[in-house]
Specification:
By secondary structure, the protein is α/β, with parallel strands linked by helices. It is built from eleven helices and seven strands. The strands form two sheets. It has a four-stranded antiparallel β-sheet with strand order 2-3-1-4, with helices on both faces. Strands 6-5-7 form a three-stranded parallel β-sheet, with no helix packed on it.
Length: about 325
């Protein structure tokens, strides 16, 4: 008995009369919306499925009603084109679609937070543009039957746009720390909970490096502590500076005091992902820094030693991003 070879593809083979002109364009647009690709001038293919068969049947009926000819068949390529080559045609077609989305996304990402010189906003809102890009991505994904590699770059880009929009909104509604605020936080005693870990280590470093170079640190029990005059609390219950919504203390301090240094952004993202464990930013450095911080905590019980070790880590991490041309 001959071996039965299962068909992988549905083919639409058609011939369209030269008149009327609109019929050829109409059929071509319909096939594009279905995600079909051409393997010959008048031969289009889709991966085999009941939906693909039904879609081609509707197109075939339209061609026949317009005076043309159409046939639908199941196929497996045995000679000439291979299945791998057909898959490559599908990938190439969808990669073109994803590339168009990515181009628009990069333009949007570049423009977020930058208006015209007189401050007037002449482009559509970032949220509206992002929503449009997401809709277009969903449309392309619905006909991306074989998982084109271009999708990964688009997904990452859309995530970057969302993060940039959130940052831009916070910057717009949160003014930079005034000179009065900065003077009030100079030469202060900064109080936090004992047993410091990543958010408090990083915040300690940030405070002394960018906010209060003369800061003194005090480590107290997490409950029942009543602050003394002149003390500022951070990363603890009822603190002046602590978690706010989905932001860790380090992010809150950066937002409040607005140090003008772009290298702090990736540092804040790393601290966020380690502290909140939500992989919001997906920074590749997270696992290594997380283990390094855990090692500091395991090796040193005294908070002063943890502070010294942690400060060195975050100073070097900051220096890496400061010297790196692009994040």
């Amino acid at each position: 008995m001959a071996e039965t070879i299962e068909a992988r593809w549905i083919l639409l083979i058609h011939q369209i009369p030269p008149r009327p002109n609109y019929l050829r364009v109409k059929v071509w647009r319909r096939l594009q919306r279905l995600g079909a690709v051409a393997v010959k001038n008048s031969v289009y293919v889709l991966p085999r499925s009941d939906q693909a068969q039904e879609d081609f049947q509707w197109v075939a009926r339209e061609i026949v009603e317009g005076g043309g000819e159409a046939s639908i068949c199941e196929a497996r390529f045995m000679d000439g084109l291979s299945d791998e080559q057909v898959e490559a045609i599908f990938h190439a077609a969808r990669n073109v679609d994803y590339a168009q989305v990515a181009d628009a996304g990069r333009r949007l990402l570049k423009g977020i937070g930058s208006g015209s010189r007189n401050g007037a906003e002449k482009r559509p809102s970032g949220d509206a543009e992002l929503a449009r890009l997401k809709r277009r991505t969903a449309e392309v994904s619905s006909i991306d039957f074989l998982g084109a590699p271009g999708r990964r770059a688009v997904d990452k880009l859309l995530g970057d746009i969302e993060a940039r929009l959130r940052t831009a909104k916070r910057e717009k509604r949160t003014p930079a720390a005034s000179g009065v605020i900065r003077r009030r936080t100079r030469c202060r005693t900064w109080v936090t909970r004992k047993g410091i870990h990543v958010d408090r280590m990083a915040s300690d470093w940030l405070i002394r490096r960018f906010i209060d170079p003369e800061a003194r640190f005090k480590f107290v029990p997490g409950r029942g502590y009543r602050p003394q005059a002149g003390e500022l609390r951070f990363d603890m219950f009822e603190a002046e500076y602590t978690h706010d919504g989905d932001r860790c203390t380090f992010e809150v301090l950066v937002e409040k005091f607005q140090p003008e240094d772009r290298a702090l952004r990736p540092v804040a993202q790393i601290v966020h992902d380690i502290d909140l464990k939500d992989s919001k930013f997906g920074r590749p450095e997270v696992q290594g820094i997380e283990r390094l911080v855990a090692g500091i905590a395991m090796a040193h019980r005294e908070d002063e030693e943890r502070l010294a070790r942690g400060s060195a880590v975050f100073e070097d991490l900051y220096e890496y991003f400061r010297r790196k041309k692009e994040d």
